Amino acid sequence: MLAKLIGSREIAPGVRHFEFEAVGVERLEFVPGQFTSFTDVIDGKQITRAYSLASAPSGTNRFALCLNRVEQGHLSPRLFAMQPGDRMEMVQPLGFFVLRQPPRDSIFIATGTGIAPFRSMLQAHLKASSLSVTLLFGVRYESHLLYGEELEDMASAHANFRFWPTLTRPDAAWKGRQGRVQMHLAEAVNERRDVDFYLCGLKEMVDDVRGILKRQGFDRKQIFYEKYD
Question: SS3 letters for the chain?
Fold first, then answer.
């Protein structure tokens, strides 16, 4: 399968939102939270990288990705150099980082581009009568709060969704939460035991939060995660 670039835009320094369409199919079928893999031949070697979809299924062949440019990376510089109409090999989305069924009230915890699968889940599932979700989103700087305005709008429109951004390097004007997401976990849980946890982001954060939750007595079946280096 081929992915054709429709367009892209910078949403933070070194981070772009990409809009693609899957060539040759009318509908791209996937479950919110899943990922696709892109493949290209670079310097004679076949390079494959997996990326979470950053949009909900739309009933069309279009989908979005949210990507960091990794300066020493093999594939991200090629993706950042793509122009509308350019194509790259992709595979049918797959993966198990999806809301379990039936869904329960949940706490989403993301760092950096780990926000991508949560954007997909929220677009698909956040309705007035749906589950209650708290999203803890940790980045260094306010400029890196990917989809921040969109998430704030979701929180304003849905009483069952709380968006809690937190910065580790805030400037003097920042009035919100500070520090790593781990520092705000207890407040988000608020002594509840009947919630599920979904973690996506850097390995250090995911491993640390999993350890905290396990020490607090949460069952591993309540903790779902994807992590990257």
Answer: CEEEEEEEEEEECCEEEEEEEEECCCCCCCCCCCEEEEEEEECCEEEEEEEEECCCCCCCCEEEEEEECCCCCCCHHHHHHCCCCCEEEECCCECCCCCCCCCCCEEEEEEHHHHHHHHHHHHHHCCCCCCCEEEEEEECCHHHCCCHHHHHHHHHHCCCEEEEEEECCCCCCCCCEECCHHHHHHHHHCCCCCCEEEEEEEHHHHHHHHHHHHHCCCCHHHEEEEEEC
